[in-house]
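Hi F.,

I've been meaning to write this up properly since the lab meeting, where we talked about keeping a consistent format for the predictions we share between groups. The idea is simple: the sequence comes first, exactly as it goes in, then the structure tokens exactly as they come out, then a line or two of notes. No screenshots and no reformatting. I'm using this chain as the first example so we have something concrete to point to.
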Amino acid sequence: MSEQTVKEKSATGTQHAALTRELMEGISSGRFPIGSLLPTEFELCDLYGASRYAVRVAINELVELGLVSRRKRAGTRVEARTAPRNYRQSLASLDDLVQFGTSHVRAVQETGEAVLDRALAETFGATEGTRWLRISSLRLDGGPKAVPLGWTDVYLDPAYPDIIDLVRASPDTLVVSLVEARHGRHVAEIRQDITAATVPERIAAPLQVDPGSPALRIIRRYLDHAGVAFEISDTIHPAGRFTASSRLLRSRE
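Output, unedited:
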């Protein structure tokens, strides 16, 4: 990715995401060798035309991935060329999910129409028999020997069939972000449920695990300002490949 590409992406509101991608590519290619220091925040701002906020978010993402470490007055040191397989991500907002989408590319496996049966409808809190567009993908870490982090079935409002082509053309952009950009339907709330699960037989081979092996299941419902879900994602992460973390703060009251 060129510096000009980063600047172009910044104009569309994905500045920190583009910068994260560029720095990851620089580290994996050896342009920023292990043990070296990344440019300072001010240097990165000048180099890529990014804001200090975007630079800080990008660096924090690299720290979360285990690619770099930061020490006060010592700079940002490159620690590894690729992220560990056991990916840990703190997901507290839609921006965090956007970062995840940028750092891990989507490989579409199947698309089509789906009708929710009783079991899925109950799991999703939706109505049995409703029709959705379904986009099934693997999430990869982006490396040359990419390990699937998970399998995601995205159920999308059938009013947006044009999104399927955009999904294939934009592997590092969340489906919900494409809907927002193309159709102006914005997310007001994401409801997330995390449960223990096992890997279904139909996706075991693509995930490179045995059927029935332990997994983490994450279901996210994307609601608009009217409280209507227009996207539901159902992700299976094999055990040891993903950790969802959060912070709980005591109220000041």
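Notes:
Residues 3-78 form a domain with the Arc Repressor Mutant, subunit A fold (CATH 1.10.10.10).
The first helix runs from residue 3 to 10.

If this format works for you, I'll send the rest the same way.

G.
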